[in-house]
């Protein structure tokens, strides 16, 4: 098995190009057994997937990582280093240094670390300009060594330009990016390439909809069929993008490409986004303690393997479908605008 390739962020942290996303333990995807989740993390690390993405609002995600991290540190074995990216998602309110520091200290205590590899800041309302206060304090704390990489989550290009123009160094921006949602190609990519900012993408597999499992299947609409927050969220995105019939055409095209490369539809969909300008890594949800994780891990490793190279013909076949979709920039707006009124 080829080693999982890594990318270096502007502050020097090296992370895997496929990251293990921990939104699935937030409670929106069913009940979570913390002990089983901790145990299941070992299989990802054994496969070379050592980078975990979490948030202070993802239920017990930080605690689960902390338990796993402590077990590894106490084992005495020579184990690969982990990279832990978390998010700071404050409620609206004063953003003085004390408030910001307290939030970071809470995350560090949960994660059992003395400093944070990467803090990805999210803000709900651009009209409330206190996000600039928070980022100023985060930048100061970065200079003091509490944070290695200062990043953003779901900020649009306009605000990204505003923040960097104030001299705040941003390492990455976490945004939705997939064959369905290609809004980052509109404005975001160009700015990020010019300013050494990596895109870390989520929703790249549309919550699992971009897989053989849904090829040739009737449209799911019931709560029983769309039984996780991810499936419900990305099914709505497919509806906006062009609907189930066009989505089936896309799955057919992806399946055809996948067969020529002896891989899965998920691996092709992930590889396509990994090859986009400015994309440093793709976040794929962990199946912690859930059946089928082995195939899930295999698909992730295969997607970033140097042996998987999409040809011009592969990309042309995919684009022949995606160009028939609606313009999500016109419908929704720039990256992250779906989270704001």
How would you describe this structure in keywords?
single chain, 341 residues, alpha/beta, TIM Barrel, eight-stranded parallel β-barrel, two-stranded antiparallel sheet, 12 helices, 10 strands
Task: Please describe the topology of this protein.
Blueprint: E1 6-8, E2 14-16, E3 18-21, H1 34-46, E4 51-53, H2 61-75, E5 83-88, H3 97-111, E6 116-121, H4 130-143, E7 147-153, H5 157-165, E8 172-176, H6 188-194, E9 198-202, H7 229-241, H8 244-261, H9 265-274, E10 279-285, H10 293-303, H11 312-322, H12 328-331
Parallel strand pairs: 3-4, 3-10, 4-5, 5-6, 6-7, 7-8, 8-9, 9-10
Antiparallel strand pairs: 1-2
CATH superfamily label: NADP-dependent oxidoreductase domain
Per DSSP E runs of 2 or more residues, the count of β-strands stands at 10
State the helicity in percent bands: 40-55%
Identify the strand order in the major beta sheet. 3-4-5-6-7-8-9-10
Average per-residue pLDDT, rounded, comes to: 94
Secondary-structure-derived class: alpha/beta
Q: Domains counted in the coordinates: how many?
A: 1
Main beta-sheet strand count, sense and barrel state: 8 strands, parallel, barrel
Order of helices and strands: EEEHEHEHEHEHEHEHHHEHHH
The count of helical stretches stands at 12
CATH topology name: TIM Barrel
Taking the alpha carbons of the first and last residues, their distance comes to 46 Å
Organism: Eleginops maclovinus (Patagonian blennie)
Protein name: NADP-dependent oxidoreductase domain-containing protein
GO molecular function: oxidoreductase activity
